[in-house]
Structure formats: C-alpha cells, structure tokens
Amino acid sequence: MTLRLPVVPGDGVTLRAFRATDAPLIQEASGDELIPLITSVPATNDHAAALAFIDRQHERSRTGEGYSFAIADPADRAVGQIGLWPRADPGSASVGYWIRPTARRQGHAAAALGALVDWAGTLPALARLELYVEPWNMGSARTAERAGFERAELMPAWRSVGGTPRDMVRYALLLH
C-alpha cells in the first residue's frame, strides 16, 4: 500500500518530502549523541550515507510503512524530521521527531508536531496518536503536551537505546 506524502504547512514550518539537498541535515544529525541511537540516521557524516537515509525515507511511504517528513523552516532549509507510523492496532499511529542540534530551541518541533496533529486529524481511519519520550527529556515532553498529548504511563525499560534498556513515557492524543 503506497501512502501519499503531502506537503503540510505549519506555523513557521513546512512538512515536506526529503530532498537530496537535505543531506547536510542528516550529516549534522549524525554527530548528535542521541539521534543515531534512536532513529535510522547513520552514525557517520558521510554524504553517501545521508543520501541513503533520504532514500529510505521515500521508501517508507512507497511501502506503506509510514510518513517521514522533513521539517523545513521558512527559508525551506530542513531542520529536522517528523514521522507518523501506523501501528498494528487499527486507528492508531506513533509519532516521532527530532531537530538538528543547530536549530533547537527555536520552536520548530512544536510547530511541526502541531502541523502533523492537525493533518493527522484529517485522516478518517486514524483516531489515536502516541509518542514516547525519555523521562529526562523535558523539552520533548513539553512539546508533546503543548500539542495536546497527555501523559499516559511510564514504561520501564521499554526501549533499547544504544543497547541499554531505557524507560519511556508514553503520551497519547485522541483525534476524534
């Protein structure tokens, strides 16, 4: 099942498909201490590896795995990624996002999450969104809560990060 990746406007951001010209975003993110551990961003700043990552994001919508958007600022410079990933239980999806280190604390994540939630609300088969945040990541927790997500539960040792089991807090949002 192929998913159509739309262009989604937001407040100061646009969610769009990744482009080859977004490779510097992936290369910068590869140097972050956390992003390569919790995403499929390569842990090398190699240009070819960045392009392979971008190709994988396009493949996700072609195979129906999910929607992977580049978060672009008003100058159309990619500053991060946000994704919507359908879950096995019908009507629900997971959300994940990250921002490149040099673009953090500028409101991009909040604007992108708000735009994604608004767009997800137009998908008739989707009723519930979830996202997962490590307990120490207060910035991401505040971003989720501002977008309407509610803290649902602490999930001990729920996800392996760099080979170490880590606690996660599950946040949920009902769309309809």
Mean pLDDT: 91
Q: Can you tell me the CATH topology of one domain?
A: Aminopeptidase
The CATH superfamily of one domain appears as: Gcn5-related N-acetyltransferase (GNAT)
Name the helix and strand elements from N-terminus to C-terminus, one letter apiece.
EEHHHEEEHEHEE
Helix content: 25-40%
- Which blocks of ≥5 consecutive residues have pLDDT under 50? none
The gyration radius over C-alpha positions equals 15 Å
Number of helices: 5
Distance between the termini: 24 Å
What is the total tally of β strands? Answer: 8
Beta-strand content: 25-35%
Sum up the overall morphology in one term.
globular
CATH architecture of one domain: 3-Layer(aba) Sandwich
Going across the biggest sheet, name each strand in turn. 1-2-3-4-5-6-8-7
**Helix- and strand-based class?**
alpha+beta
Quickly name the level 1 CATH class of one domain: Alpha Beta
Structure notes:
The protein has 176 residues and is an alpha+beta fold. It has a domain at 8-126: 3-Layer(aba) Sandwich (Aminopeptidase). The protein is built from five helices and eight strands; from the N terminus they run ββαααβββαβαββ. It has helices at 23-29, 35-38, 47-63, 108-120, 138-146; strands at 8-9, 14-16, 67-72, 78-86, 92-99, 128-133, 150-161, 164-174. It has an eight-stranded mixed sheet with strand order 1-2-3-4-5-6-8-7, with helices on both faces. α1 crosses α3 (47-63) and α4 crosses α5 (138-146). The model has no long low-confidence stretch (mean pLDDT 91). Keywords: Transferase. GO terms for molecular function: protein N-terminal-serine acetyltransferase activity; protein-N-terminal-alanine acetyltransferase activity.
